[in-house]
Give the backbone structure.
Amino acid sequence: MIIPALDLLYGNVVRLQQGDYNRRTVFNVDPVHKIIEASAQGAKLIHIVDLQGARDPVLRQRALISRIVKCSPVPIQTGGGIRSAYDIENLLNLGVKRVVVGSVAVNEPHMVRSYLKNFGPEHFTLALDVRIENGVPYVATHGWLKTSDKTLDSVLRHYLPYNLKHLLVTDISRDGMLKGCNNNLYASLAKKYPNLDIIASGGISSIDDIKAVSASGATSVVLGRALLEGRFTVEEAIKCWPNA
């Protein structure tokens, strides 16, 4: 599946380089218009990152997310600073299809296991951002500011028995850099976890990049900066993805 992504900060659509709030580009576009446009071109799901919520859940852009959900012709998955059952319930009540859970899945796995059990795994996307060290993916937390001592595989082991369905993995070194995805990483994950929806993220700059990540075995890919910069359209991307 091709999943267009929008990062939101102070109501604006932005993109960060490698998660750095000081290295951001602001795009003069209306998020609702971009979502309607993407849907018209064939998108079936939209990925929203609430960068304010990621910094402080109290500042979550609930009004904007609510407007997006009401206006969007397709389901929305969103996250950023999800730290409690209240955060999840609030977003699901707004009509969000899937809540993206990140750092809390690393730091408090018992809580996230309870979320999967109580709200249902179909309503979650587990988002793990990694740094590759000596060929091993280690999970970063707190908006990429900290790298934990936990490997990607060790974190996943906590959730597979709880019917985890959707896994979004970003190689931090690739995000916002338009240098292509870490396809070796996604190929490894697809081989180890054939029942997971492996969602690739970070680095897509061209149609050839999309073809490459599709060949890796990933089942979906998130597209952000490249779409905003007009390097290709959602429709063109979908044509490159089998069974999109």
